[in-house]
Every structure is written in C-alpha cells, then in structure tokens.
C-alpha cells in the first residue's frame, strides 16, 4: 500500500475521478462517478465529494451527504457513493475513505454514519461489514441499510 491522501474534488482531479474503472461485474452496484459529480453540483450544501490519491495518483472516490434535516434517517449522514479503481482494490483505499468520511461526520456532530448497499456476489457487502457497519434493516427496494456508530 502506498501513501494515501484525501483531496477535495477539484478541477485538477475531476477527470481522473470520472474515469476510475471498476472490476468486471461491480458496475451494477454503484452509479458512475459522473452521477455523483452532477449530484454534488446541484446539492452543494450537503454533498461532500472527495478523491483518494495513492502515491499521487487518483485511485478512489467517495461522496458523503450531510443533511441533519433530511426526513429519512438514511440520508442525514451517509456514504452516498464509494468507488476504488480495480487495480487499487484491496490496498486499504476504501477503508481510508470511509474513515475520513466518518471523521468528517463526527466533527459535524453526527453520531452515526449510514450506507445503503445491494447484496450480491460482486457487491460491497463484505467490505462494509469489515469496516464496521452493522446491517440494520432492508429498504422496500431490497437494499440493506448499514449503520456505523461514530
Ligand atoms: C467496495 C470497495 C469500495 C472496497 O474498496 P477497497 O479499497 O478494495 O477496500 P479495502 O482494501 O479498504 O478493504 C477493506 C477490507 O474489506 C475486504 N473487502 C473489500 N472488498 C471486498 C469484497 N468484494 N469481498 C470480500 N472482502 C472485501 C478487504 O479484503 C479488506 O479486508 P481486511 O480488512 O481483512 O484486509 C471497492 O471494492 C469498490 O469500489 N467496489 C465497486 C463499487 C461499489 O460497489 N461501491 C459501493 C456501492 S454502495
């Protein structure tokens, strides 16, 4: 594992973030980064988009959402999206990104971080369990809601 650094999404890294390529079969579990970038643009007060650099190269993207007034609990302090480039998976990049987002949530006064995921062979379930999320319930759409106490 190289040196990991978190950076705000900016003009210098946005193209690299938008071209992160996942492993075959993983795309069905996460929307493209371009969707997150568009969502961050239209929700500038709540979205928290960040990239992860490994030895200076963009290898990951995470977007949090912080909205204490959201009606649904799962959108108040949550991981909206996380992607790690195929070649960099298994290096601790995802864990680093989740911890950074958890630190940010804690500093904003939140006591929980949530995430929604779909179960499936190439899906992220095992990753979220390893980083400490506990499945709480299933949504009406069949996604699992996981919670991490901060
Ligand atoms: C899920 C994802 C972000 C994990 O990122 P990563 O950088 O590979 O994760 P890490 O290297 O930090 O792994 C942390 C732990 O989870 C485990 N892990 C990660 N992905 C795993 C998988 N698919 N199956 C089993 N274990 C997995 C690692 O082995 C590691 O375990 P360890 O602590 O015992 O060593 C990455 O696989 C990805 O981008 N997936 C495609 C997009 C996606 O599904 N995003 C989530 C949408 S909700």
Q: Could you give a short description of this structure?
A:
By secondary structure, the protein is an alpha+beta fold.
Would you kindly provide a written description of the structure presented here, covering whatever features stand out?
There is one protein chain. By secondary structure, the protein is of the alpha+beta class. It has one domain: Gcn5-related N-acetyltransferase (GNAT) (Aminopeptidase). The protein has 4 helices and 7 strands, in the order E-H-H-E-E-E-H-E-H-E-E. A 7-stranded mixed beta sheet has the order 1-2-3-4-5-7-6. A hairpin with a 2-residue loop joins strand 2 and strand 3 (57-66). The longest helix is centred in the middle third of the chain and has 15 residues, at 93-107. It is globular. The two termini are 26 Å apart. The mean pLDDT is 95. Bound molecules: coenzyme A. Coenzyme A (COA) binds at residues 22, 26, 29-30, 82-84, 89-95, 117, 123-124, 126-127, 130.
Fold topology:
Blueprint (H helix, E strand, L loop, with lengths): L3 E5 L5 H5 L14 H10 L4 E8 L2 E10 L10 E8 L8 H15 L4 E6 L7 H6 L3 E5 L5 E6 L1
Parallel strand pairs: 4-5
Antiparallel strand pairs: 1-2, 2-3, 3-4, 5-7, 6-7
Bound molecules: coenzyme A.
The site of coenzyme A has 20 residues, from strand 4, helix 3 and helix 4.
Key features?
24% helix; 7-stranded mixed sheet; globular; binds coenzyme A; Aminopeptidase; 150 residues; 7 strands; alpha+beta
């Amino acid at each position: 594992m190289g040196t990991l650094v978190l950076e705000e999404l900016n003009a210098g890294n946005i193209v690299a973030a938008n071209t992160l390529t996942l492993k075959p079969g993983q795309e069905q579990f996460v929307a493209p980064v371009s969707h997150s970038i568009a969502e961050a643009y239209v929700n500038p007060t709540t979205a928290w988009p960040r990239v992860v650099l490994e030895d200076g190269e963009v290898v990951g993207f995470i977007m949090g959402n912080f909205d204490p007034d959201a009606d649904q609990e799962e959108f108040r302090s949550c991981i909206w999206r996380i992607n790690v480039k195929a070649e960099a998976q298994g290096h601790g990049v995802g864990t680093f990104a989740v911890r950074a987002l958890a630190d940010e949530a804690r500093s904003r006064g939140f006591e929980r971080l949530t995430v929604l995921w779909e179960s499936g062979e190439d899906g992220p379930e095992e990753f979220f369990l390893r980083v400490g999320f506990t499945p709480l319930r299933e949504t009406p759409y069949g996604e699992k809601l996981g919670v991490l106490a901060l």
